[in-house]
């Protein structure tokens, strides 16, 4: 595994619609990345910092940002009845990032944030060129009979899934089966020994994830 890169130049972002941090590449960006957190986190989550640092080192302008529910209150889970507002926040982050640079746009997130990204992309496929989904919450823990897959047949954006081998929100085999519903190219990266919180994984999955995103963009799917 390649050592995690040192943070490049960063910039705090605090506007009406976007709150987070930008990580700048050394030269002109080859692409854009916007990543958000899960139900219990925020834009300071370790896995987001690792991913954005890695993307910046690979030449991407990378944004890690808070969803609207986290901007409303510093702690506590999102409200299902207001999930549409969180998807609007994702769209706002995507628009703000496109104003900063050119190139393909990768949208992604952790758990709840990633699920909202897939739902937005299923409804608006033009919103992104590729997705990066970390610890996708395929079903509630212990309830595989309640899969969150209704929108996957409408997901036409190429996607990389990074998933722990011991994730209670879905086994690797369950996720592989679910990905057969997605008509777009996909990649599944298993994180050895990891559960749902990839920030606590014994190995840093960011290097392999960034390489998978680039490879998928170049047409090396599945």
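Q: What amino acid sequence fits the structure above?
A:
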């Amino acid at each position: 595994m390649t050592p995690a890169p040192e943070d490049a130049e960063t910039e705090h972002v605090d506007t009406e619609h976007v709150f987070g941090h930008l990580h700048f590449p050394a030269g002109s960006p080859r692409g854009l990345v916007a990543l958000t957190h899960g139900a219990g986190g925020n834009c300071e989550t370790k896995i987001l910092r690792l991913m954005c640092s890695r993307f910046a080192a690979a030449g991407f302008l990378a944004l890690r940002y808070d969803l609207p529910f986290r901007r409303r209150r510093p702690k506590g889970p999102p409200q299902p009845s207001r999930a549409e507002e969180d998807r609007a926040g994702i769209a706002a982050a995507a628009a703000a990032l496109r104003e900063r640079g050119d190139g393909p746009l990768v949208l992604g997130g952790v758990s709840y944030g990633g699920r909202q990204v897939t739902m937005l992309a299923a409804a608006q496929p033009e919103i992104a060129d590729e997705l990066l989904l970390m610890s996708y919450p395929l079903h509630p823990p212990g309830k595989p009979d309640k899969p969150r897959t209704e929108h996957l047949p409408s997901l036409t954006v190429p996607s990389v899934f990074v998933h722990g081998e011991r994730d209670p929100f879905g086994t690797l085999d369950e996720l592989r089966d679910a990905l057969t519903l997605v008509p777009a190219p996909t990649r599944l990266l298993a994180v050895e020994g990891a559960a749902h919180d990839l920030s606590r994984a014994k190995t840093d999955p960011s290097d392999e994830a960034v390489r998978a995103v680039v490879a998928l963009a170049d047409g090396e799917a599945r």
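Q: And what stands out in the fold?
A: DSSP finds six helices and eight strands in the chain.
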